Amino acid sequence: MIAQQTYQALHDAYLEKVKHKSDRLMNYFLVSFFITGLLLALFYDTWLVAIGVGSLALLAYYSTKLLLPRSNAYQYMVSVVFGLFMAQFIYQMHGLFEMHFIAFIGSAILVTYQNWKLQIPLAALVIVHHASFGYLQYIGYDKIYFTQLDYMTLQTFIIHGILATVVFFICGLWGFQLKQLNERQIEQTYEMGRFQEEQLQRKALLQSNEELKKSNKELDSFVYSVSHDLRAPLSSMLGVVGLCEMGAPDPFMQKNISLLKTSIKKLDGFIIDILDYSRNSRLEVDRQEIHFDEILADISNNLKFMGADDQRKVDIRFSIRNGVAFFSDKSRLSIILNNLISNGIRYQNPKVSDPFVEVSVEVSGSAADIRVRDNGIGIDKGNQAKVFNMFYRVSTNSIGSGLGLYIVKETVDKLQGAIELWSEPGKGSEFSIHLPNLPKGREVPANGLGARVNGRDVRANDRKA
Amino acid sequence: MEYKYKKVMVIDDNQIDLYIAEMVMATTKFAEQVVCVSSAKEALSYLAPLYENPEEVPDLIFLDINMPEMTGFDFLEEYQHLPENIRKKCIIMMLTTSLDKDDRDQAEHNEFVRRFLNKPLDRDKIAELM
Fold it and tell me: N or C: which terminal CB in chain B sees fewer CB atoms within 10 Å?
């Protein structure tokens, strides 16, 4: 819209310039015509006509221009005035044939306005003049001096007319073409200006993008060092607690040490969650080929030592079906799977004999469908919609930070995917995740598909839900 | 019960972590002798003269990443310039609190690094290495 206005302004300014320049030229031409009339009066003493008709012509032009300054009627008046001067000069020179050329001069001058329509009044006047005066002379009225020929044949008259028409036509064409050419030039100038502006904007955008990336990177390395500095003493504590455990057979001490260990692990997990959350929200999606078997093996390896001491080992099973390569963000996928699998371990059901977490992956050209199923304690129907909320914990006994599933949801969103939860208390939970295949170059869909619980949409931030 | 390794070196700027590693390895009979150094520089000056008696070179090195002055990766840069008879005998394992993917990738792509372990070094992890 703004661009359109700018183009219009440029166009109007150009037209204004053409008009101004042409109007100035007209002043010179019209005065010259008037003086020419005076000079021609010397031949046959036609002073009355030279001054009378010439003044009337100029008066007609300037009064139109003064009275209708906003309209371009005065330009049409110029056209009429040129016709009048032609008629005047022909008369003054007693029908000298060459005086007919004055019409052609007028026609050529009008090209400057770049408006073919201006040729029409001149042409019309010439036709009317020639027809009437020619006829008058033909019927024997000889005081009008239309031509010096004794007898003008119809053939001569027609040829005369055709040639005049051709001149008016060509001058009109030049005017029209000149206008088109100039309009194209304006367009180009405008396009060029816009292009330059766009380039500048793009440059500014690139620069601010670069700055943003830099500050993101700085923030990332800050988060990295802070989390390292927070976690290093925790791992030392965990190490020392481990040493105490080795040398303390007293069951009372054992119990206390185990509580200490759980607390330290919880704090450590919380820091890791915050780190994951911070990285997910700020870092760009880094697409690479995903090898689910490697990622899952890594995770189950890392989770081997997880869980409270009184919990049993949970059987982690995978089944991967991938006919085609899958591309997504490896670290984000690890965050998602790690959180879901560790939840499965954490919330195992003490009543079942074979606690398990089963991960099945099915890859197609367009997406990967991942299901993480367990036979854990499950989640109450009433609480299912809230599990993706920030800091929501199902019970006060929950060991987690309340961030895990929120991070999962946020991360799935970042990968433009969708997550769905089905759960039945006492039987287990199943999270199914649909992630689009994102090979390099494929456009990322605009929005994530969100989270669904038992078939209904939920919003991660809707804390009142 | 036999010791798994004769000599194990731990490179870590954190004294407590050195102590933990030493104690865990002693109680699990993982290493007969534990050499604790608190910087990568110190480790290099310990290792460099050993090309004359390679039997004194540690069988295993636990290497921390985040250390002041010279990081674990800086140490690996220098390590490759050590004489071959030292490099041949040593197994290097990263032992760090870092969960960073880049750290992990970099460690796994290094020809000298056998494994990437997260702190703390405890009985379960040692059991796995046994």
Answer: N
Question: Chain B residues with CB inside 8 Å of A329's CB?
Answer: none
Residues A164 and A19 in one domain: yes
Render pLDDT for A241-253 as a digit per residue (tens, 0 to 9). Answer: 988 888 777 888 8
Confidence band, pLDDT 50/70/90 cuts, at residue A110: very high
* Minimum-distance CB partner of B100 among A224, A242, A305: A224
Q: Read off the CATH number of the domain in which B110 is found.
A: 3.40.50.2300
The string of pLDDT tens digits covering residues A146-158 is 777 666 677 887 8
Last residue of a domain, one of A237, A261, A283: A283
Give the one of A228, A231, A236 whose C-beta lies nearest to B17's C-beta. Answer: A236
Q: Does A105 touch chain B (CB under 8 A)?
A: no
Number of domains in chain B: 1
Greatest alpha-carbon pair distance for chain A in Å reads 147
Task: Tell me what percent of the residues of chain A surpass a pLDDT of 90.
Answer: 32
* Containing structural domain, residue A377: 284-465
Average pLDDT over residues A339-350: 87
Mutate to test the interface with B, among A222, A235, A288, A334 (most CBs of B within 10 A): A235
Whether residues A243 and B124 touch (CB distance < 8 A) is answered with: no
